[in-house]
Write a structure and sequence with these properties.
147 residues; elongated; mainly alpha
Length: 147
């Protein structure tokens, strides 16, 4: 790649902030909607989760491209692998959180399974924070992608 293209890299850090925010806000709004039985809140929160999931998938693809530019030290490689693992787990958890209510129309109201669904949302929030923390460690702690 030419030096002109180097201005675009790393690309992954430019894409992660919206998915992080959309996911965390979506989890909070859906959880509040389930607890207070507000279908409108659930719909808005699920839309936020969908946008967060799409954004996270795009950011993950960009991260896989950017990974080749990272220093090949043991600590960087280990942290990148942990970051990827948390990111894939997050994509799966968010996918399940989006799909489950489509399969079970009674899930969110009046069933005990809604507590399992709230647990899945909590897991998605925790995975978001773990992946974000590992990404922050890569950039701010290990200097990956910093010129």
């Amino acid at each position: 790649m030419s030096n002109d293209m180097d201005a675009f890299f790393p690309f992954h850090p430019r894409l992660v902030h919206f998915p992080i925010g959309l996911t965390l806000v979506g989890v909070g709004v859906v959880a509040a909607g389930v607890l207070w039985r507000r279908p409108q809140w659930i719909a808005c929160g699920r839309f936020s989760l969908l946008l967060g999931w799409i954004g996270a998938a795009v950011a993950a693809l960009a991260g896989l491209l950017d990974q080749s530019r990272a220093p090949a030290t043991e600590i960087v490689t280990r942290t990148i692998n942990q970051h990827i693992t948390a990111g894939i787990a997050l994509l799966v958890a968010l996918g399940l959180a989006l799909y489950w209510p489509l399969r079970d129309k009674k899930l969110l109201f009046g069933t005990r399974r809604r507590w399992a669904y709230l647990g899945l949302l909590l897991l998605a929030a925790v995975l978001t924070l773990i992946a974000a923390g590992l990404g922050g460690q890569l950039v701010y702690g290990l200097g990956v992608g910093v010129r």
